[in-house]
Design a protein that fits this description.
The chain is an alpha/beta fold and 317 residues long. The chain is built from twelve helices and eight strands.
Amino acid sequence: MTGLPTTVPEWVHLVEVGPRDGLQNERVRVATATKVHFVEALVAAGLRRIEVSSFVHPRAVPQLADAEAVFAALRPADGVRFSALVPNQRGLERALAAGVRDIAVFTAASDTFVQHNIRMTLAESLRHFAPVVQRALDAGLAVRGYVSAVFGCPYEGSVSPEQGIVVARSLLDMGCGEISIGDTIGVATPGDVARWLGAAHAAGLPFDRLALHFHDTRGTALANVMAGLQHGIRTFDASAGGLGGCPFAPGASGNLATEDLVYALHGLGFATGVDLAGLVAASGVLAGELDHLLPGRYFQAARVQGCLPANGPPSTG
């Protein structure tokens, strides 16, 4: 199967993780007002699912210590879902008090990675998050589950497809409405993605409830998206400007840049609802605040060379 559109533009859904996953590893502290401006610019560009922050302990991720303040300052927007990562019951209660209606919980396909991340074994993490998910569902929240290090672990090396599939199934059975499958250290190739999705299909995982989350450490993130598209995946995570990196995964570089993904998807004939010029403007909100250039290739071309070609279908499909 090709999984690519023919005449009528088919929608691909994007989950913008820049405000949380993109900023969590940055050394320069970004002001709350700048974060709010960034999120609102992403909304103006057409993003409809945005992961805004995390309710982890402030000492764990100091960059996101202002989660309550960011959510308090955001203006509601029709059709836009603002989400937050929560690590435990305390984090969930903070999210509820802040009016958050979409949350995400997180574990990994590698036992060692989970231990470095949240100081639990993989099995313990699943038991830990079960009551968190149930409490969120009882409160009417939408819940997403992250599975990190699915294609490789910085501590254990290779990870079998079966390991990630078992964890994804456990999170689905727990009540998570969507599972994000993460290549946290950016080791996956298109062949790895095809093999994983083939095994997931054989295991009966519902592809309409899966998202793919690629880091571009080795330059294969876009190619991996193409493999996902060919196998029927229609939801992908990305980070404006290519920001990102995991503080618990040595060597992990930025996420797939949202601009690069949108440019490629529009060129293939997919609809995303995202305006590229507006997206570049949103990334520009942060460009002058950090101590390095944003790595996204489209962003660099658009900002330096004024390169904004109008290829592909209308952004609204």
